[in-house]
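Researcher: Checking consistency across runs. Here is Lactose operon transcription activator again:
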Amino acid sequence: MRILPILKTIIQNVCELSKSVDTQNGSDILIIQNLYQLVYQLQTLFPKTFSTEIAIINEDIQHAVDFINSNYHRNIMVVDVANHVNITRSHLFKLFKKNLNCSPKDYLTYIRMYHASQLLINSNLMICEIALKVGYKDPLLFSKIFTKHFEISASKYRTNFSNRQI
């Protein structure tokens, strides 16, 4: 089939382009997350198309990303992700830097901040409740990280970006 080499080239190009994504932008992180999920599923559907020696998406990174995406709302840490994937924190860090151009901790923070921003815009939940829903036990720590990430406080973010009155 001629389409398979074309598909492989497109996937390799997507993976290369993903290395230059702005990791400070939450929507870029979600785009990359979805692209990696797509590539992983394509590899699963067409295993003979991809070399087993040079996997386009490392299985460990995919499992780590899936674990973070499914558990960001819990009080998880990088060591929990590494343990889930059964690799060292150091190896996990190298995989994230190589594949996502950010650390596992940064990726976890980006995912949490994205979901927090959506909750701020689309719900009436108090900020302390949102903090808990995205994996922070301490609302003050959440507020500090949110402000650092978006360069605006959570309450101002809600005021500025909410489409309805809260």
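Researcher: Does this match what you'd expect to see?
Model: One thing to look at in this run: Residues 109-161 form a domain with the Arc Repressor Mutant, subunit A fold (CATH 1.10.10.60).
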